[in-house]
């Protein structure tokens, strides 16, 4: 029997080691891993530079309190600010912590300028911002919040319903928080023009824009942030997943104006930004923020998406739509999602579900074109078998 709480419906498979795009199971099978810990292992499994970083740093220093200065964290924060809109960074350990802290930062900003009633956060109905008590209520999903009482402070609008979005902004709204690409929600991309209008709306209403890049950020789309293509700047951006390459790191990026509200004692984290995590983050950042690396993500993605669209055209009874950008890809099916995922897995390709009957395909960002080719072959085979 398992002593783990059954809050996951786990597949009956475990792995003994991983290398790059591949996972090796305890029953000696080799799988092409296009889940990568759900967009976490941005450099695949056991990347030699990350292994070396962990080895080197673990011999020097793992953890000290944020009561002291942490040079590795200073270094990573500087890199993140130089690469993005942000002026300041606050480190956490996970995505949900980062999104929840973003809510705190937004509220605290208005408090600091003498508007303490501006506390409400406007989010997309059935979005995903994590599993803490506040973030499940931010998501506005009945399934996620059922049985967990009530946390107030959130309003919701339906994805794409711009009229209702505008109507839901009140004098107490502090911020709009959205995912530029809804990951768990089914790889739904917010069009660039929408992001631009959203920015304009926030400026007009004097409220903040929080863009949750936990899943879509850290070069996953071929830009460091998914929103970059729209040429707008958010006020606050939570990140996590890819920045740690498998090591738990979260962070809130923010502008100077907002950061000024976060005075000593307003937020904290025992583990957030510890030297071991920061050393890993620095190595990941050096690799994934490189222009050539980003260009390669775009080129591999182009190959993947165009071939997936060809498969869709060949099997219109199976695939409804190919969604996504960069290597954040969704295959929306007309057939049963779980059956499709199982068949891919039987053929040694690992993928994961998302809402709207979408199969998420999340290769590591350094995936080889030949590995994409291998995945395409498996996807085609499964489509033809189900056709
Ligand atoms: C957009 C978004 N925000 C927040 C989270 C929560 O991150 P974590 O699971 O690290 O708490 C996720 C996780 O999937 C996410 O996709």
How does this model look, in words?
It is a single chain. The protein is an alpha/beta fold and 387 residues long. It has two domains: 15-46 and 292-386, Aspartate Aminotransferase, domain 1 (Alpha-Beta Complex), CATH 3.90.1150; 49-288, Aspartate Aminotransferase, domain 2 (3-Layer(aba) Sandwich), CATH 3.40.640.10. The protein has 13 helices and 17 strands. The protein has helices spanning 36-39, 48-60, 71-83, 95-112, 133-139, 142-145, 162-168, 192-205, 256-259, 275-288, 291-314, 337-346, 369-386, and strands at 15-19, 22-25, 30-33, 88-92, 120-124, 154-157, 173-178, 181-182, 188-189, 208-211, 236-239, 250-254, 319-325, 328-333, 349-350, 352-354, 358-361. A four-stranded mixed sheet has the order 1-2-3-15. A four-stranded parallel sheet has the order 6-5-7-10, sandwiched between helices. A four-stranded antiparallel sheet has the order 13-14-17-16, with helices on one face. A hairpin with a 5-residue loop joins strand 8 (181-182) and strand 9. Helix 2 (48-60) runs antiparallel to helix 10 and helix 11 (291-314) packs parallel to helix 13 (369-386). The longest helix is centred in the C-terminal third of the chain and has 24 residues, at 291-314. It is globular, with a radius of gyration of 21 Å. The mean pLDDT is 98. Pyridoxal-5'-phosphate binds next to helix 4.
């Amino acid at each position: 029997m398992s002593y783990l709480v059954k809050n996951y419906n786990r597949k009956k498979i475990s792995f003994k080691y991983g290398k790059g795009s591949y996972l090796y199971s305890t029953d000696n099978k080799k799988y092409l891993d296009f889940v990568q810990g759900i967009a976490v292992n941005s450099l695949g499994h056991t990347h030699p530079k990350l292994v070396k970083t962990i080895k080197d740093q673990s011999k020097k220093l793992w953890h000290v309190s944020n009561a002291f200065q942490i040079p590795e964290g200073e270094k990573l924060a500087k890199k993140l600010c130089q690469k993005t809109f942000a002026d300041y960074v606050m480190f956490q350990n996970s995505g949900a912590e980062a999104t929840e802290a973003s809510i705190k930062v937004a509220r605290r900003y208005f408090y600091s300028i003498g508007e303490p009633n501006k506390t409400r956060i406007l989010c997309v109905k059935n979005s995903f911002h994590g599993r803490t008590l506040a973030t499940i209520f931010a998501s506005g999903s009945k399934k996620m919040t059922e049985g967990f009482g009530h946390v107030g402070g959130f309003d919701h609008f339906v994805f794409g319903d711009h009229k209702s979005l505008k109507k839901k902004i009140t004098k107490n709204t502090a911020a709009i928080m959205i995912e530029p690409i809804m990951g768990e929600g089914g790889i739904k991309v917010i069009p660039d023009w929408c992001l631009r209008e959203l920015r304009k709306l926030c400026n007009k209403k004097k409220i903040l824009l929080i863009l949750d890049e936990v899943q879509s950020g850290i070069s996953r789309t071929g830009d460091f942030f998914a929103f970059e293509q729209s040429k707008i700047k958010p006020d606050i951006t939570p990140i996590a997943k890819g920045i740690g390459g498998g090591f738990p790191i979260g962070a809130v990026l923010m502008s100077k104006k907002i950061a000024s509200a976060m005075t000593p004692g307003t937020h904290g984290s025992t583990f957030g930004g510890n030297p071991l995590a920061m050393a890993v983050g620095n190595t990941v950042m050096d690799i994934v923020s490189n222009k050539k690396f980003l260009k390669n993500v775009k080129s591999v993605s182009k190959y993947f998406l165009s071939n997936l669209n060809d498969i869709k055209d060949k099997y219109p009874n199976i695939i409804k739509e190919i969604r996504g950008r960069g290597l954040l890809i969704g295959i929306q099916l007309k057939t049963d999602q779980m059956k499709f995922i199982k068949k891919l897995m039987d053929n040694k390709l690992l993928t994961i579900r998302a809402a709207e009957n979408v199969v998420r395909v999340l290769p590591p960002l350094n995936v080889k074109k030949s590995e994409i080719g291998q995945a395409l072959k498996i996807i085609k085979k499964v489509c033809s078998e189900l056709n």
